[in-house]
Amino acid sequence: MFKEIIKKILPNFIKTRIKNFLDKKRRTKRKNERIIIESTEFAGFLNKFELKGDFDVIFHSSTSHFPKIKGGVKEIFDCLQSWVKSGNILVPTFPFTGRVKEYLTLNNNFNVIETPSQMGAFTEYFRKLEKVIRSEHPTHPVSVLGPLAAYYTEDHIKGSTPFGNRSPFYKLAQNKGYILLMGVDLNSVTGFHVHEDMLGSLLPYSVYEKNLMGVSIIKKDGSKIKIQTPVHDVEMSKKRDCERLRDALVQNNAMKIVKVYNSSLSLIDAHLFNRVLIKELLNGNSIYGKVLISDIIKEKINNYLQENLNA
Q1: For 286-300, how does the pLDDT look when each residue is reduced to its tens digit (9 = 90+)?
Q2: C-alpha angle 146-148-153 in degrees, rounded to nearest 5
């Protein structure tokens, strides 16, 4: 009763301050209650995926939604490097959070060397490491460390779309690499857009805005260029829920999950991932919900699948 009276008489700005204070207090409590593990234990969890030899992996992470690893981001990196052996580590180092269109509306400048990543603590640590190369795409740059770093990053800016055949995301699938998730769900996997860009006009819905957006880029060599880039449609993005296809990915052995106390590590086979997504699309299932596809388009998509993703 007393609480209800207080709620009625307090100004909205005071209510907001109280809510923010309580939210911060709850976050602090959760942070203090986090399980702490040694880096050797983290390495052990990675090894449960039983991958052999050298391989390439793109790493999506949220350190705050995973047990705290002693030594922090450096130890996480060391474990990853040991795990892939002589392979390549790819990390999304996008300069925005939220919607791309909103970001470019407010900030249409991108500096490949200086613009920080907004994808979390590990991504910014990784971006600054010696010998790491960052692709020059202004909205979806990827930083890469390894013998194929130049190959993965060199043509990204030249692609007509962020996830097409010149992107690190597409090349990872072609190289039969993996997508590793730490403390995040499938909605953090930008690789879902690869099959969309692969299908292009065969896709039964449009995922990009009609108009391109201009952005100025300062490249690694200091030169300046301006490009027009497509951005994902805001209304379609609101419908997107990648978790819709979790069961299909697991059932088709495209995704494996290792439980880590109150969190998890998930590993996705990037090549098989695209096959499963396209097959699900043919069955009317997408990350945007149910879709209807004509028999003619189905036949064309099936042909594409056989020609490009059969192996």
Answers
A1: 999 999 999 999 999
A2: 105
